[in-house]
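#lab-general

N.A. 3:47 PM
ok so I finally got the sequence cleaned up, no stray characters, all 509 residues accounted for. can someone with queue access submit it? mine expired

B.Y. 3:52 PM
send it over

N.A. 3:53 PM
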Amino acid sequence: MSTRTPVSAPRSGIGDRPEAALEAVSAGHKVGFVSLGCPKNLVDSEVMMGLLARAGAELTARAEDADVIVVNTCSFIESAQQESVKAILEMARHKTEGRARKLVVAGCLVERFRDEIRKDIPEVDAVVGTGELENILAAAGIAPSPADSPFRILNSRPANSYPGASRPEGDARAASGRFSRESWDGAIADLPNYLYDEETPRVLSTPGYTAYIKIAEGCDHPCSFCIIPQLRGKFRSRRFESVVAEAERLARSGVREITLIGQDTTCYGEDFGLRNGLALLLEKLAAIDELRWVRFLYAYPNKITGQLLETIARHDKICSYMDVPLQHASAGVLKRMKRGGGADIFLRSIEKMRKAIPGVTLRTSFITGFPGETEKEFEELCEFVRQAQFDWMGTFSYSDQEGAGAFGLDKKLSPGEIERRRKRLMQIQQGISRKKKKALVGQEFDLLLEGESSETELLLEGRTAMHAPEIDGTVFVNDVPDGVEPMAGQFYRCRITEAHDYDLVAQIV
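B.Y. 4:20 PM
back already:
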């Protein structure tokens, strides 16, 4: 999923024009950000904004006012790459036609197309990869470039991991070539290994009552459709104490909802020998008095343990919400995806989750049109969706990515057929969602009010614990009791009065 956060208050590679890139930008000059892609990328943007702000830069939400513009890019699928390039070109106009003096490109697109960006977009002064966040200062001209050479890429890692931390699965994947970038022109040999910690400055771009915490980085899984391991490096967890310290600090600052993120949060702690690390972490976070909601995203299906489910069920603060991207349900397709499992196994797992956590909200995502996906295999997926009855579901069209294992597979489907299947699957889910939302009418829930609706000033909007930030539907509020002054960031009790395919209408009670 790709989201775009506008220019906001928000290993350094210096480009082909080092003189321009190293030209000083004095403290107090304005820096603007465009952040693309997933919440994990958003946290990277917040870290870079924090580093810049601590160095004296002023952050601006207006691109036309910025002296330096940073575009933090996504490269997960082709459409995300295209969106990233479009954003870079849009921001380049502020340099050629406006006041901006520097344009910096950061993130996953840099790891994938470092040389091409420098060559094809001459307005770009510097690039910063996913493992080089601390070097944003040099890229923006606020600090000197690395002393040994202005052209050398440096990887840095704070003291944020346990000595000797490793994961057998990751070591085996590395030995098998999972992280190879040999087919990518210009990619540096070193994989990203950066991890921010509780001492790293961050400037939150989310509303003050909600924040993401990245608890791990990288990925060791062998999924053949994905290049994230090459873009983000091997899986590595943040120290347990570091995550808790950051959560406590955010809670003291007024944050009431924390969402834990990582490429696979359910592997948290395995690289330093911690069993059921995510369950233990959730237990600790649930004890922070100021927090109201804690949730986590991206659970790998075979890593969901009984202890994790029991922990969620035991604590009211931990949202009864499971985001388990299954990707497919046909055993044949899943085998080609190098994921394993199948419809029967997944249905048993879903039954276990619903039994352990009464009223649990289940979200998943699928890929349609994977190479070789037959009509029969697609029908298996459709039937699985009908049986599973997910609360929320996203569907992606297969995107061919050089460097991914599936790139060399035969029997590629046409874009038209892939899209047809995507639409059909979403039509099935739309009917399921409509039925599930109607069943909520008359029920009461706690509501986190987010303010005036983006659709009309006549409505307010918010979320329940069933709604993860930015990715699920909306609760529109059309009735507030006399004497109640609704405030964004506050929790209210609401009653659902109306239901649509994905959104709900409620009154504050």
